[in-house]
Structures are given as C-alpha cells and as structure tokens.
Amino acid sequence: MEVVEDNTTPIWSPPDKMLNIRPPDRKRGWYLPPGRMGKLTLYFIGDPRVLSLLASLLLFLEQWGNLGTKPQLGYGVFSIENRNEVKERAEKWQWKVLGAQKPSNELPDLRRFGFFRFRFSPTQPGWWTEVPGLAYVARYIQPLVSNYQVVPVSPALKNEWRFHQWQKSWGDARHIFGTLRPDRKRSRVVVSWAYAQEDFWEIKGWAWLPSKPVTANRLWNLLENEQIWTQVIHSGSLHSKKPISTAHKLAKFLEDGQ
Q1: How many angstroms separate the CA atoms of 71 and 108, rounded?
Q2: Does residue 130 sit within a domain?
Q3: Which of 240, 245, 230 has its CA nearest to residue 115?
Q4: Which residues pair with 41 in a beta bridge?
C-alpha cells in the first residue's frame, strides 16, 4: 500500500492544540487532538485474491468501522469516492464460524460486536450548541460546522452512557468505557462525531459487547435507546436505523446490499 496523494489538513489551529470538551458535570472531560480532514489517495498492489478481500474490508469499514487511530474519540469516519470500482474488485465474502470454539473473553470477536447508526434532522442550524459541553468551546466548534460540517458529539454521548445511565451493579464501567487509571484501557464503545449528509446528520459506531449476556444486553439497550440520543443531541427530528447486533445479522444486512 502506498499513499500517492495526501490532501488532508488539520481541522483547527494551532495543529498541536487539544480541544477539551467538558460536559457540565465533568472536571476533566475529553481531550481531542485536531485530526485531519480532506482527500487521501491510496494505491494497492499485490495478489488479486488479497486485493479482493481488501476491497471487501474497506467497503465494510466505510459502512460500520473506521480507519486510523483514536476511534474511541470519534475519529476515522471515511467515504470511498470510487466505490463502484472498489465494488467490482470486492469478493462476495461470507461469515464463517469455525468449529464450536467460543469467542475469547480477551480478544475481539465479531460474534460479540454490535454496530449502530443514527440519523437526525436538526430543527435549527445551531442545534449543536445544546449538546452538553460544546457551548463552552463554541468558538472552536463553529469553524468545524462551517468548513467541514462535523460536530464532536462523542464526549457528550459517552458521558451520558457512562456517568448518567450505567449502574454500578451492572459491572465495572471502566472495563467497558475505558480508563486511564490504574491500568490504561481503551473504550469498548466507539461512537463517531456527527457529520452532515445530503439532507440529514449521521452518527455511527460499534461496541465490543461483554461476554456476560446480561451485561451485554444492558449495554446494548443503552446504545439503542432513542430517548437518550434525543436527550443528548437536542436535534429535534431523529431517525434511527435499526441497530445490527450480531455478525450473522450484519452479514445478511450486507448481502442485501444495504
């Protein structure tokens, strides 16, 4: 793989500044690096079979995943411009469960992943100023909306799920939502920033669900609860796409071309 053209730029200045989004009930909040946006051209060469699988993987990641670092902070959303060409190269792949081996508790396994996407139609241009923690840094957010049509809503959503909705009796929130102390753990819940489409805004993400079914169900119930989304986003009209909660359902979803 080679990067043959990189037309991305930092989305705020100075490029080393960290944007601190601090919902009203948090003392520290989330620190976001500027990241980059723009067009990036990648060139792949190699075995045709491998390239076919890579094309399939990129189409999957475009719909449900991300590229690059810090997805737990909402980074990595991308779109493929030459999608038709990539589709022609992509192999029709199928999900396979080899043997009866159970998913590992320590390693990611798609049988324990859930994927979600929410779309909404704001009733006013400044809807994002009502998202907890964003009004405080409005002078930095407004250029993101004007120039790139993105809003970093991930801290507000994670704050609501973790500190307002999650119950201690359900399990250790640090194991699910991440922690810096005492041992650094990445969040098992990833949610993107909000980004504008043609006539709506969209937020998507995924969760590596806990191995205990009861805990997994409780987490998933939070992620698909539209009332929580509406409460945090303050967007007015909200349209959700039904979450896909298992790899097998996701495979069927992809086969149907959705």
Answers
A1: 15
A2: yes
A3: 245
A4: 5
54: in domain: yes
The boundaries of the domain holding residue 21 are 2-92+109-255
H or E segment and range at residue 250: helix 247-255
- Token digits of residue 219: 């987490």
Sign of CA pseudo-dihedral 255, 202, 209, 165: negative
Answer yes or no: is 103 within a domain.
Answer: no
More confident position, 106 or 23: 23
Largest CA distance in the chain: 55
pLDDT tens digit sequence for 125-137: 899 999 999 999 9
Domain-embedded: residue 104: no
d(CA 35, CA 79): 16
Domain count, the chain: 1
What is the per-residue DSSP string for 77-98? ----TTHHHHHHH---------
Look-up: residue for tokens 């730029």? 9
Phi and psi at residue 125, to the nearest 5°:
-60, -35
The full DSSP string for 39-91 is EEEEE--S-HHHHHHHHHHHHHHHHH---SS-GGGT------TTHHHHHHH--
Distance CA 185, CA 179 (A): 5
Average pLDDT over residues 61-83: 92
- CA distances, 177 to each of 120, 161, 162, 185, 186 (Å): 25, 9, 7, 8, 7
Average pLDDT over residues 28-43: 92
